[in-house]
């Protein structure tokens, strides 16, 4: 199989989305010249070109793209060629209204933006695949083209009748019989029993709380049907261009698709990462996305999109200082990226994203902004030896999409218990403790890890439960957050409220869930938030912290820890650091100060100071610093927002 | 007529909803055993069983229910049998799409939750009534069955064309002529005059503020059309089982249906009561609902649903401590309940309410939670002598649904002036003053009360006005809140702005309404909120409090008090206590401390300490305390959240 | 052409909307008597009378209106006769469903409120115009009728298919070719290219950010299509009654229609002004609306609606003290109004606005409220010599609807950067500096002004840019707010990010936009809010203020000032006062205290004390005060909320 290494060939890819159809062709040569000057290696072309490539049904206007690819190739710029199927042209919706998505309340979503396609629509698929096939035939062997970028940020959801048909087929395959479906969905409750497949529909607007298992299966289906669209395109492309790797771009903590299932079908795993310059903990969120993507890739991965400056879809879109941009880029490389691409090369003068930053801003090349971009291009060249190297982690964090979907259904005990803040809370504590972690599917092989962390796994399959309990029985350290192992795969609550096998390993049994609306004090200055439980402790289970009334809240049973609340960050950091130490896991460097991130990738050590104060990092040995090309030893002093990339001497 | 006494027969009923279709039949005998051990007398069966009883159109699957009823009967558990018409099966909506409700903006509400039925739909009624009739024939004479529970928490509203047809028929009956309708709706305003009945429709989405009289009549119609559904079922049941009482369950401060009109059609009045464990004043809200239900019942009533622990439909659903559960249960009995039922017996493992607590929790019978349930069952047995006894009140609070509906229309002077906080404010002041009150319809006979309280009666019919003024003229004490008597039954403002007859009795005439967005100081440390008025005072009207600028805000004219604001709780408590004293009304006991609730029911005196401190309650005579079976006299010391049930020795 | 002077004839018109169809005819003579006693000169009749005038399709019921006009004429009350086309009767929507507006998400807006008409509907227009023509023929020469009021507060927007048709025709006229439209809309972005006119539609609900240029053009179209409705009525009326002036009523900072384009088509420009009694800066907002209306009128104008007391469409609708009402009325006259009309004469007893105040309140004529109305009527008689006089301003503020629409599209850099707060911020600073300003279209002749202020002009046409730069080159003083000159008429960003010609005149070039979510300190105690920029300064450009890091934020290049932030009010007031002084512009009086508004209109000087303390206003010469009929000189002492109207002696 082709891989990212076939594209990088020893270089960190640098570039971004390039949408030249927005400018007159006279601008293109200037673009290529400026790209070269900025160190750009690779651009992604054609993500939104469907209407230009197929202006009317069945037409093919490929000549402009050929001229463009030729020009890029002459200029030494390589191309990640996109299939343009994320944004159909207006004519598709007009001629085939069934391709337009319909919301749960029956509202049609029209053209005039992007993404207006129903993933179940046969008409959509026919037209998308025909164009993809012709593109592959026409350009798959063009010398500039090194990789395929399929569609974009998969996410459309549709509740139309054709979607209902496909949903029924998917359910039929999953459950085989209507009785099994009725059992799985618990339709005995509220008189929802289906006597005929024809009454099985997507969850649509309803008078009250919808059936959570139906919603969960529709989320599974919606992810799977998008994956079906992806693999259909991929299979076509592979037939034409078996030498070219394919990818599609994920987003950090993106709920619409199960990235584990997508990653398995890709040659290259890639991520769009947009940390918020206004968020002082943005590096926690971005590192979570990067660690997750690396884990899905099983090695080097591609940052497909990031912003050189502000985005345009938050409330207040803060500008991004140059030193922050540099830290974000180095953080991605440190955590396994072999490619750093941006949305987009040249800022759009029109359209819905004309205020999104670009490598080349509205104000042009002679600006501090673009000079920072060029400096970044240069620096990536200085650390190219990292390409292909792996990040090795001894800690794994369990993350699962179906559990996420099930956790956040309506009718739950607390609408504040969302997975995202919990995942960020736990990941932030690992980050604060300077512990690098992989992410794992709950049924993945855990044998190479010393410690496994489960921020929350509300829904756990039998295999997941066996996986986790087996890991502990084999000597592994498990740290589990609250409300884990509660439901089985059909979102049915386990007998007793929580899976008994898991309870046995953890040495606790929750008797009652007690959501919190205010933080409560733990033993010391720390607090617990979101949740608490009435816990029955097994013989031998140790209490590490209690509520004021003595209720155990953090427990340890051998190497298995349980937390019935989300502690404040400092407490969680200390707990994880201590559990890691006990499990034989050390941070990348001893004695790291706060706000400093240190990650080992292959032989290199990345040290990033995210703080606003200079940081002193004690180095245990002498190193060569690649960005400044100098030897360092003893105390490495890093100015605020500065970084070092160190190779042992 | 059959009544609740036919069911209680000297026992306080104890039990709850039992939905055994959710479990394999093997579980049922265990359920019956555990029910017996917990002291359960009665369970409600079949509320959501339509799809199990009629799995396909016209089919009848009654055998499982017969086996269940037999089993319950053998186990000594009595049954309140529900008609399952609150939640039609999916096939009804699929085969008869007109049974699905449509919102004001045209959105169809689908199956997949519950309540998806249009109360005006002939197809719905045909199918619902056919099943009800067959159930009555089949099970109406089963020995286990003691009572009928019709539908559940009536509430569906629909704006479809069939609803429009029925709305027009309702209006035709109410107004007879289109001219009368035009006059009542004030259609001369904004060019809304109807020249033909065909243009008369439910209020649907519109560009701006809808016609408030049209909206009000649609709310009246929506309540009446639900009542029509109720009485249609009831009449069928009465034909088959004249010996069985029927009920349907209300909710506290539930806006959808006019409970006065429903209560008149029931044999037993019942209430679903869900005080929020996170609300320190929850006992005020629950006592309001209980006093209202008792007043509607005219005697003992049934608490059809309550929660043994948390619910699952608030934002953060707090757990419920056992002492709080006990207080809630005793409060209901104190205020007239002869039945305490819970939603539900056994916690659901699947479906939209699987996180709602139950008598038997997920964690099973061997839990503190279930032990508290059993203890409650035992204690209810100790106070069974209360069954059938009446609560006598000398104070009445006026409450009216049409006035509520009219008050909260769009286009009003302040969107903060909702009836619920006002009603709770006044009821809370009565509670704080240890005064037990009935609730009354504004046109009800008031002659047996000494004091009548009107928190707000924005809309008052001529009969209501005459009723209130006649009460004062007959020597009664009237305490009226602001913005009362403003509109007539068609939501037309009375000439002069407020009904002149009422003004005469109160000795005040509001010249201008002055809503408040901030509290304003009254004379002392108290404040007024929500509202103020420019008041003209009649000769002889006394000013009891003023705003800082001297504007009168609380007045007294003989035995008629008027408040042009909502005072802070302490002020309102003092005012009501003083007006009550002057009217010869005393609390249940003299010298009651704060946070202690004391209610007399028949010969028994219930004393509940809702506070977190021990309370000392001076008893004027020796009593027997039923829960502890001991004699008490002098100072009764009640620990926090403890209660006593006292019979004079 | 007829004008407002033909109606005023030396009097300040005083009156309001009169909707007598809401009362029995017996009430009418009392109305006329009370009007006379209150000094009412003029009432607006028939705004919402369509259903009374045409109760069934094609019917004409004009006799009641004739009786009314006769009665008013006999009583000496003149009439502004309305075309009733703002609120069609229910039958229009029922018989012609295509006349009902459809929202972007496909929801139909029904009758039952008002404004339920699609401005593109041919059926609507046919029926509206036929009625208008008949009204004109019947009543255009009635002696009572002095003026036409066309429709009411134009605003309906529709996304239906007929609207799409008319939108396409409008676009065809604007762009001629589809290529030009594609270029203007930037459809190369996100694959939105149209290959056929049939796919061009209004912006409807879509999966993500809509095309901003499409939205902008739809807003232009929506304003133009309403104007088309207006001019169609106007042309009919002019044919019948060339002697009568026509108007329609605007609202302050009303986004739906481009008032510049409407004003050009009117004989009289009129405004509905509803300052919030709860807003301590309400006089800033009202003066902005009045200055804008005066500028659109080019002379005296008409305040068509205001409230004598509270309105009923805010959250909490505060009552209006009498002194505040008087100040509001005098402020309007000071700023050019020759007519003061109210919504409405007599408070409605029913309908959606029954809680809106009126000249004659629910509580009747013998109330403080109505006595204040009568006092106002008397005082307007005392200052009638102002009628026809002009307000002369040396400062102009640029305001543009398309720029407003474009600025606030989705996908922008900060959703807090709305035009309204910015416009109010700048206008408030001018008000605080006691500077009276006109408002101007960005392409208007600026030669009569010394100073031009541009709070924001995000979208600036080439002609607007040339106009502003030419003004500076001719010696004028320009003060420009941030983010001005960014986009051209198609909402395409100017090359370089900001128009180069404007940058040259201002001596600054913004290199990066940096929205703020928190205020930042400027040099002194002031702060900047909403926005900042990285600025490149040209040779000779002076820095007047910087951010803490030294970034220039307020600059001056000769007579051209630039502000890259919205400074706190005091700073902006000082800057504008200083720039005005330098430009030779003085306030109406020297030494005016805070909270005092002074405006010269013709020979008269209006001085209004909005403060809660007495104000001392030093008069440079002796004056006659018209309201008190006395001579004043030296220090004029004005009690709180009092006013003086001064004529130099």
Automatic annotation (TrEMBL), chains A, B, C:
Pfam families: Glyco_hydro_42 (PF02449), Glyco_hydro_42C (PF08533), Glyco_hydro_42M (PF08532)
Top-level enzyme category: hydrolase
Binding site for substrate: 114, 152, 313
Descriptive protein name: Beta-galactosidase
Residue span, Beta-galactosidase trimerisation domain: 393-585
Gene3D superfamilies per record: 3.40.50.880, Glycosidases, Golgi alpha-mannosidase II
Listed PANTHER family: BETA-GALACTOSIDASE GANA (PTHR36447)
One example GO MF annotation: metal ion binding
Record's keyword terms, sorted: Glycosidase, Hydrolase, Metal-binding, Zinc
Residue ranges of domain Glycoside hydrolase family 42 N-terminal in the record: 17-380
Sequence ranges assigned to domain Beta-galactosidase C-terminal in this UniProt record: 596-647
E.C. no: 3.2.1.23
GO biological process: galactose metabolic process
Residues forming the catalytic site: 153 (proton donor), 305 (nucleophile)
CC terms in the record's Gene Ontology section: beta-galactosidase complex
Catalysed reactions listed for this entry: Hydrolysis of terminal non-reducing beta-D-galactose residues in beta-D-galactosides
